[in-house]
């Protein structure tokens, strides 16, 4: 089997320096975009809270409430889902319990484990965020920003990156 001079790999993948550098540039752009999008999401939630006069909780806490939804979960489960990087999940859960947005209860089996679920007040925030996200999804479709296939393509690509990164963490040791 001969290897093309511009191809470093016998399987035909182009690993030329120019292509590798171009991919690296695109990869870094994508990483920056993901980070900016997360910060923008928090800003959008914060703006919605200011609009409706809900100033008692922050956007990260709102996402916690949204992601708990109708479930009863532990702090560890929320952390493992990875939604709250850069924030202290335990601190935010404590604040949400103190503010009446969540119930917490020690596990009968493992007293170190605390399970949380939304109160009526917490469900109200969940509904507010659900409406906000529904408005966004309809706006993206109505304005032709994204269609169903586009969202699915983005999701598939992001899941592949997530899987790759997860494998990197698992196999580094």
Automatic annotation (TrEMBL):
Task: Name its species.
Answer: Yoonia maricola
Can you cite a GO biological process for this protein? response to stress
Q: Which Pfam families match?
A: HTH_27
Record's PROSITE patterns? HTH_MARR_2
HTH marR-type domain boundaries: 27-163
- What are the recorded GO MF terms, alphabetically? DNA-binding transcription factor activity
PANTHER family noted in UniProt = TRANSCRIPTIONAL REGULATOR, MARR FAMILY, TRANSCRIPTIONAL REGULATORY PROTEIN
Name of the protein in question: MarR family transcriptional regulator
InterPro entries named in the record? HTH_MarR-typ (IPR000835), MarR/SlyA-like (IPR039422), WH-like_DNA-bd_sf (IPR036388), WH_DNA-bd_sf (IPR036390)
